[in-house]
Amino acid sequence: MTDADTERGGAQAPAVLRAVRILDLLALTPGQVRTLTDIARELGIAKSSTSALCAALEQGGLVRRTEGGYLLGRRTVDIGSAYLAGFDQIREFYRICEESPVLSRQLVQIAMLDGSRVLYLAVFEGRERFPLSASVGDRYPASATAVGAALLAELEPEQVEDLYRDPTALVTFTDRSVTDLHALQERLSETKRRGYAIDEGSLHVSVLGLAKLVPAASSGQPSFAIGVSLVHPADSEREQESVLAALTQAAAELERPVLVPSPTFSQ
Known about the structure:
The protein is of the alpha+beta class. The protein is 42% helix and 17% strand. The chain has a six-stranded antiparallel sheet.
């Protein structure tokens, strides 16, 4: 089917869905400029249609055109911030980390599941960042992170299988990364039995991740996972135990947040 045929089909691929695909593509590699030709080729959209969509997104502030191509625009930050403001857990995350004697000295993240990836919603930097440390808005393969394992373990095995029908979704970073669905299912089963997720070098050989699930507060809302990245094996076993205890307490607080008044900003 040609691009023109699709346009006539209307409901099969409306322009708004194509625009979303462009934003998703730019979000996969934040900071990396994508040319009009790159976008059209990777998404399989006619260059003329891609140009019109990018122009509309640029007018709305959702993308930014540079000399080399396109990047996400500042308006996406506003929309993302408004989205996150709807979750009590995100508002509470930083307060909990700051007040915790343990977490206040750690690199702590909170994330949600986004298909076969995790989307990092907030990061507390109580210690120096590590190689491949996630930033807010980053998407990492869920199979290679502790927060990802905590979130995937909440799903039924059939749901996990659906997410990983495409074997390329299992991204390998180190020789400890999960490379097949069977191994992933076993890891998730152990995570569920244990009550917390642990990742020993799947993303970076010297980093150990611990994470706890924060179940959805109500129907229609997503679950979150809160995790800490530790230097491994330099961090002591005692520190790992204290971090796990702090994460367990934080997850319980985030599941039943005690809200503090939000500051009012003038428009």
